[in-house]
Amino acid sequence: MTGAPSQPGRLFTAGLDHRTSTLDLRDRVFIAEGEMRGFLAALRQAGIDQAIVMSTCDRIEVQGAHHRPEEAARAVTRLFAARAREPEAVIAARVAICTDGAALRRIFGVAAALESQVLGEPQVLGQVKSAHQLARAAGMTGPELEAALQAAYGAAKRTRSETAIGERPVTLASAALQLARDVHGDMARCTGLLVGTGELGELMADHLRAAGLRSLAVTAPSGGRAEDIGRRLSSHVVSFADMESEMANADIVITALGSGRHLIGPEAMKDIMVRRRRRAVFVVDLGIPADVDPRVETLDGVFRYDLDDLEKVTMSGRASRGAAAAEAWGIIEQELAMFARSRAERDAVPAIAALRRHFESARGQALRQAGNDAERATELLVNRLLHNPSEALRQIAAMDGGGDRVMAEHLIRKLFRLDESGPGEDEESRI
Question: Which one of 57, 107, 111, 131 is the catalytic residue?
Fold first, then answer.
């Protein structure tokens, strides 16, 4: 596949997220920060010259523009397959692809954190902007993608300022901090462990750090992801194989993996509590589905809270979450309509300019041909301007049974306001 700069780019997105793929697959495709420039270069080599790449726990996605968006999406799928060391067909069954209007809606939805596992995650917009900045530095942006992203930022800003969608994650983090204080008191005496790399888990860990948490360790199946989060949180990274040992040392454990299976069951937690000499442990289970078997709550000294528990603490249930999401999507739809109208108006400018040049040329020819006879020049000009449309209308009528002719006549009437009494002074002054 080769690029074609002379042709306008059409938007596309191609990605793996929490809806379409497993954590294991996303871990194998994951593009670490140090690999991102190389991946952008691989996209360019594949003929894609407008693209940003998002690579997080919940999402590995390319958003771009290309004159053949379906081909571009297939090229992205091949690159994902190569990273996962899987047949292309296996990855293609998992990659979600959108083009044109659906891709634009996806770009807007991702930026507004409406496509995230936890709605309203505040880090997502920053992740999009970071990916955009990196792509721009690599020369991988162009007019179509730039316009879409800038409009998406404006839409995301509106959803955060006009709805409660952005408040929920921060409120949940505040609730987790309050509960941790109820269990342990002063955070300065506590150690923490973040298991997994979900965005909400990182937010909560950062909240605890800001509250004075003495130390924090990070672990995840993907060492590259854990290193990235460890850098951002100024925390040390431990091997995932040592997770249970690290849990025995942690007063606060945040799990944000959502691997589809329980990392810790009652028996393992019982052993951990023995090693902790029955000192209380506060567990925030953000996994969807749960990372920690809920039965551990029956053990003395184990205080486990999941997302539903935190929502009950904040008095924010599923109904309010759904209402905020619906309101936010309503704003997105408004912004999409405004963007489409703006682009359509901009796209019409070259045709209008060409029409004006054509009319000016016809006027000049009529004046030259008529000499100083103004009435003759007007007559020539009207005949000249009507000739081509009249011929085209006759040809349409001859070739078509009537449908296209009716549409053409309707368009002519609309363009020239033929159903009105005639142009007034205001209309004439604008011509």
Answer: 57
